[in-house]
Each structure stands twice: as structure tokens, then as C-alpha cells.
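<instruction>
Derive C-alpha cells from the sequence
<data>
Labelled lines for chain and fold
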Amino acid sequence: MRVFVTGGTGFIGSAVVADLLAAGHEVLGLARSAASARALDAAGATPHLGSLEDVESLRTAAARTDGVVHTAFDTADLARFVEAGRVERTALEALGDVLAGSGRPLVVTAGFAFLTPGSVATEEYTSTDPASPVGRAAEPLARSMAESGVCTSVVRLPCVHGTGDRFTVPRYIDVARRTGVSAYVGDGLNRWSAVHHTDAARVYRLALEKAVPGARYHAVAEEGVPFKEVARTIGRRLGLPVVSTPPEEADAHFGIDSYFAQADIPASSALTRERLGWEPTGPTLLADLDRDGYYAA
């Protein structure tokens, strides 16, 4: 297949590009700068100049390929989440317009919305909160597109870790450095589901190859890692005390990252493993967090 990948030079997208190429697919990667184009070319992909804001460039690329994997999303500034979601919606609608009725697959990235405390998210639950900073609007939109004749499927991502990670884990390392303590909230038993980025990449490829309209997949290797253990690993590596922060002080301590520091979102991938024949092989979150790369200046 010739596959168009958005976000192909990002943390997750670059792993998707590498996995697609290794499996024998051709890749056309969205490049919004000359540097991105060079990176895609070096990886063995063909650059396609454009951006999520340039819907004509998206339509052109989608028309030239056999399927699309959408991983791009502006996570650099969580304060701009709403604007990033608006851009994503417009981009997905443009891609859907081209792919509608063709049977060519569109694989969309989503996250996890909060569930009833104590429950575990499965592939069968339906996200109903498009405004959630975890759920995003991509999944409800993909579901609507599938009902309208676009062969969309969704890959839900937990905490993704690995070489090149610049988003989730590094933010808490930065908070620990800034405050002088590695903190968790309350008893710290809230859980993060997690996956190594190379394992996540295979889920995207398998979802693309299966092309099941309306399917939802969980790229989840670990169902739930207590956040307290994440804080303990960070504290040990930085030589900082590990402390509990009362819930009422969490926002002051973590700032905008308080939301995820308190998130309890365990998730199962049993159905994904069965339906895709996927089995993760990468390191665990805590093992990965214990390597030097996460603590380089």
C-alpha cells in the first residue's frame, strides 16, 4: 500500500513511518517544513509539503494514496488544546471527503476519556466526552465518518513512552526538577495505562491493513501502572525526595499537568490483541523511565 501519514516526523508518527516501511509499504509523509521533509526523506519516506491547516494539501495527498494514518496533533502547548482540536477536526473532515465511499482506510488517533472509578476501559466502551483533554474530538468525529461511508478506525493511545518522547513523562521530570521533589497526588494509586511507541506503531499498521470500518483498538501494553511508581522512579533517578501532594494542592504543584497526574485510566487491550494478532514486545514504562535518555539535559 501507499500510505499517507500525518505527523510522520513526530514521536509516534515517526515510529509508524518506520514500521510501515519495514513491512513493505510506501509512505507519503506530511511535511510542514524543510527540516521535516529532510527527516522523512532520510527515513525512506516521500515528503509531501503541507500542514493540517492546509486542507488542499491534505486532499491532494489522500487522493494519491491507498490509505491514511493520522497521528498529527499539536501537543506542545496544552493551553491551546481547543484550537488544536479545531484544526484537527477540519483536517479530518477534508481527508474524509476524499476517502468517502472508496473503501480506502483512514486510521485516526484518539485517547481515553475518564470512566467510573475502579473500572477498566475496553475497546467496547464509547467515548462520549469530546471536550475531554484525554478523549479529544477525533473519536466521535471518526465514528460519525464511519457511519457516512468512510472506512475509519480508531487507535486509542495511553501514555506512550520511548526514545524521542517529549510530551507525557518528560513533563513530570521537568516538574520534579523545578519543584525539587517528585510528587504524586494523594495515595498515588491512580493508574496510567502505557505502551512503548514501537509497539503502538504496529497497532496502527495492523489497523490499516485490516481496514474494518468503525473499529476501535487499544494500543495498550500495560493495563495500569500506579502513578506513585512513576514518581518513585523519577525521584530515584534525579536524587529527589518522593512526596505525596494533597489533592487540593495538586494544581498549584503540577500546573496544567495536574490533570494527568490525577488521572486513573486503566485500559485493557484484550480485544485488540485478539482481533489484530498484536503482542507488545517493548520495554515497560518503568523500565524505560529508568534509562538515561529521559534525564539528559
